[in-house]
User: Fold this.
Amino acid sequence: MPDPTPMQTAKLDPNKPILQPATYGSESGVKFLSSEILWWRNGAWGECGYAIPNDGGKPTTANEAVFRVHDFLGLQLFNLMHRADVKFSRPFNAEWLYDLNKMLTLGIKRMNDSAIGWSDNRDGDARHNLNTPKAFLYYPVPFFGNRVRQKDASSWCGQILKLLGEIQQHSDNAYDDNVTDFFCSMVQEALLRIQKDMAMKYLGFKREEVDAAGFTVPAEKFNKGVYDPSPLFVDSELVEELPPQQWWPSTNDLTPISGIPANVANVFAARWPVADGFYGDGGAVEMAFPAGGTGVIAKPGARPAV
Assistant:
């Protein structure tokens, strides 16, 4: 018997960008199947090296609990990766790290809150109805090329993008509203790994401290007069030359791409061409210094005339 309410999906052309900033024009590319973090080659966003998770062909879920944790992590990463701290190679300001730590801490807590064990009561489960599957939401972030100069921000961003893809491909998506201990452990371990790295490198924690059961980072560690990463870095890591002039989106530019259905975003997914004509930030470095000098600054896009 055919589905009485077949779903109709709008046909999108990967060669015609969508959700573009009004003042920024460029071209798009084609989608590509890959197990890597995906380049969101959607016009201006593609030129600026934006990335989305790789869902492995599983862009939807019937599990509301999984959807919520995926959305929470994606949105918080989106907010962090569009703040000024990622533009510089020097250590973060306390506020950026505080917000990262809060995201990680709450993500770990919410997994504990949602977990259903082998012997937990399941009487609240629906018996005669199922959730309607819905698409995960994507929050594209700058990732590829030289746009994000803060290396730890880039590394942690990559780890969370991979986690988001793992969440989408987990078998718990077949449940309606519950998540298993296996799913929760996967998410918690990924978030805790980032939290431990951050605590040791920027806050001076020792390995035995972060490996202790129940480890958390006290909020006081980020207070004024307490947070000081300078003893943990050599002098050359605390200073840098002026980065190249680049276009960065405004809040208004970001609004249309804040929460795009995965099946729509995937139309513009491609593999980052690191081994096939690598141009850094979609051409930004080459464009900024077309003759090896520093006098010409151009936004990423068309190549200089030869």
Summary: DSSP finds nine helices and ten strands in the chain.
